[in-house]
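Appendix B: complex inputs.
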Amino acid sequence: MAIDKTRSNGTATLYDVAERANVSGMTVSRVINGSAHVSEKTREKVMQAVEELGYQVNVAARVARVGTLRVGLLYSNPSAAFLSAFLVGAMGQCNRSGAQLFLEHCDDMKSQRKAIERLISQGVDGMLVPPPLCDSRSALKHLKEIGMPAVAVATAKPSPQVSAVRIDDYDGARTMTRYLIEQGHSDIGFIKGDPEHTPAQLRYQAFMDTMHEAGLNVPAERISQGLFTYRSGLLAARELLSQATRPTAIFASNDDMAAAAISVAHGLHLHVPDDIAIAGFDDTPVASTVWPELTTIHQPIGDMGSASVELLVELIKGRRSGEAPAIQHRLMPYTLEVRESTVGGGLAPAFTVQVGPQVS
Amino acid sequence: MAIDKTRSNGTATLYDVAERANVSGMTVSRVINGSAHVSEKTREKVMQAVEELGYQVNVAARVARVGTLRVGLLYSNPSAAFLSAFLVGAMGQCNRSGAQLFLEHCDDMKSQRKAIERLISQGVDGMLVPPPLCDSRSALKHLKEIGMPAVAVATAKPSPQVSAVRIDDYDGARTMTRYLIEQGHSDIGFIKGDPEHTPAQLRYQAFMDTMHEAGLNVPAERISQGLFTYRSGLLAARELLSQATRPTAIFASNDDMAAAAISVAHGLHLHVPDDIAIAGFDDTPVASTVWPELTTIHQPIGDMGSASVELLVELIKGRRSGEAPAIQHRLMPYTLEVRESTVGGGLAPAFTVQVGPQVS
DNA sequence: CTGAAAGCGCTTACAG
DNA sequence: CTGAAAGCGCTTACAG
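Resulting structure:
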């Protein structure tokens, strides 16, 4: 509850806090920035004043002093779902870190170079590279060559040369496959994703490995090639479901294709999940839009947004103080979301299984 | 192309420009802010220096001086598609206007008040209210009471008390209805949206009015109630398509329901658009995800994002200089996107019709 | 551990 | 029409 305010704006400044806590502005600055060289007593006094005044750092002022940190986001065709969740997370962290976020869109290779140039001319100090660009060797190489700090987001096979934030796609697909097997499925169809995207490769590999480990055979006709698009999912699902014998479950490499599979199943008058269980991957909004809702692997995209900004800011600051770039790969936790598309009888309630590395 | 740089950062400052143009920093500031009191000759000199140095204002510094403008975005459950497009537009304008964007999420009425309080304690000077909150009398009233400048986004019936940015939903639905009639349809089914949302009401009204004007009768069984969700679209479309005689086209109040209608049609082994044409509204990503792709009304959501920030910043600045709030309602242009879901035979290529007010 | 001074890049009055 | 000075709110060296 902010009550006592000073400026015309109504917000308290650093000095208001200093005055109230009977210390210098310097000391307040140290406290809010978590400096170690402050006595516990002073820290408490200051924190209390901060509370009482409802003080919030003026990020603009801090940034003006420290030197504006400008972060570029180079996006091409991520799904709107990905982009919005990612932006929410990234923006929050930008506000906290005092960075300014610049967006630049590009389609093909040519416009990619142009977009990078535009970001540079806007003075960005580093770039965030979400999918599918995160898997583009050329883009990453180009950034490396011009010495631009970068963080690849949601690539499944991060280059050791570049910092990255991602979930473990292999492990996620393995978890889903195991779950389906535990549900009693032994004949499972799989819809592959765009072979150009690294997550597609790992998800497929994990599916095959897990099936084999469980002693289950996967005939070639149970694998269908998709491209991550709804349209391709339609074709792939039709292939899987129009055979003499059908699988009892389909695991699609992403939600769009899983949604398409539901549509195909309904077209064939199959009940989902009683006749055919269907699972996706990503937990994009479409997963809870379609009916029945999709069992899927949830990626914490918002958290990945904030984590990637965090990494990038570290990278930039390190670079300014002349350190060698500290390449980091951050693995985020995913969850298995169980919903109606795999749970028959309308009995079992939807539930969530927390898996993957825990965030500290 | 920025070549000559000065600061460690690599970016040119106001004074670099001033030096190069042989004027004071003050004059540069005036030029880049479009002040009238600069001679044409000086302006040109300065602009040239700006070009040569690739100068970009340091928004953080400007904002630090002017007083941080903090803009809050109070969102509840807009679709991810809406949110991402809106954010891209809003953020761009925030960068230009030197505003900082704060996001706060809320679900129900209680958390709504809390979210508003959190934004206030973060020191925001005004708030953006996208759907569905833009139609919440209580939220808008609350903001009004505490004297918080606000802009309602994409409400169909804006209160004259609050600034708003929107498209003309009535006109859009009218355009779509006319288009379907021109395509030769006289028996058109309509899926209504959530009655709580103002756009749903106007879209329905426009459909009915336009049909009547064309001398076409709309029997009660051609109207089906939906709630804007995919699930509700499934039920509504089933209702429309399982009758003894079917309409030749369905106009759904939004894309999610139109996508559901396609799924139902396919389930009944109907060809879209040959057996049944289907149209949506909004042009969210699902419109070009499903197959066949949806004919729909495109809302320029990104532009609406930047326009709403623009309006809000004006409002805030006016308020600071003690003026009475200048309530504005900005109408944005929409377009009719014709795609495969209404165009049979695979002959006609997709096309776009520009309609609505033109932006200057 | 704490503080007085200077400065980040820009704009707001105030002069000319 | 143009500029010198002061200051936005904060942090970075530099002292104690």
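Residues 7, 13-15, 25-26, 29, 33, 57-58, 60-66 of chain A lie near DNA strand D (CB under 10 Å from a C1').
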